[in-house]
Fold:
Amino acid sequence: MIRAGIVGGTGYTGVELLRILALHPEVEVAVVTSRADAGVRVDAVYPSLRGHIDAVFTAPEVDTLAACDVVFFATPNGTAMLMAEQLLARGVKVIDLSADFRLQDAKEWSQWYGMEHACPDLIAEAVYGLPEINRERIKSARLIACPGCYPTSVQLGFLPLLEKGLIDCDHLIADVKSGVSGAGRKAELAALMSECGESFKAYSVSGHRHLPEIRQGLALATGKPVGLTFVPHLTPMIRGIHATLYARLESNTEDLQALYEQKYKDEIFVDVLPNGAHADTRSVRGSNRCQIAIHRPQGGQTVVILSVIDNLVKGASGQAVQNMNLMFGLAEDVGLSAVALYP
Structure:
């Protein structure tokens, strides 16, 4: 059995990890940390886990976590980088769901996240945990930087076009909507139901923290920098990411539906919908799947890609477990076969 630890077990991604790992046949949840709830049973905070998780929250101490085979960091940015080096030195694999190791440039990371990076030497070792592009590297990694939810949906949507050089890379548009759980489990005015219910708004139009991560991933796919306008929106739903992606085609000869189907035909967690379909977030809620639909309005030069995920599963905790499975030589979908919730 794989002994797993979760640092930050009281947030949305932390409890989503607990929900998934509770039924994972190869995992024992050995340590769950929370400074605020240390000494409290996990199922007292989350009654949905009664009968599945018997752990008690503990303080996040390296000596305790070092007894694990793998430690997930479901923490705010700036936490994992303070402990990762010590855990790796003790032989523990680290999977970070925050942004601490996603960007390859420490100075750029500091500019976007407002603090100095505590262990920039580890950035080069960290493997970006998008299995659809880094599967082989993930298998041998010690340190995984899980992608953000917005970057996951945008990259999976654009990648086939970029890899084939079919679109103008200088003028990409990602118009992306997120449920309020993407803001995390905290008391914040903008996330209150009376503030966001029956409303819809864009935010961080001048620059969102996920922008450099998306640009970095897309540039690797095309071999050169990309021009991307990324506008996130907050929608009055709990879970879900809907990315509407726009690009201008430079060729009319490619069968785009066939291109996407061929690209993702062996990917168990990427589902290319039939021609003419419209992806919607309810069809992936609670699952680790990304669903993609391809459109060319009026048969013109503009291609519109619809890419949807559950931000807490494929956009966070499910993808983290997918990475863990690869790191420990398990089938990629172990513990991740849940069908989406409907309605």
User: Anything to note?
Assistant: The mean pLDDT is 96. DSSP finds eleven helices and 14 strands in the chain. The first helix runs from residue 12 to 21.
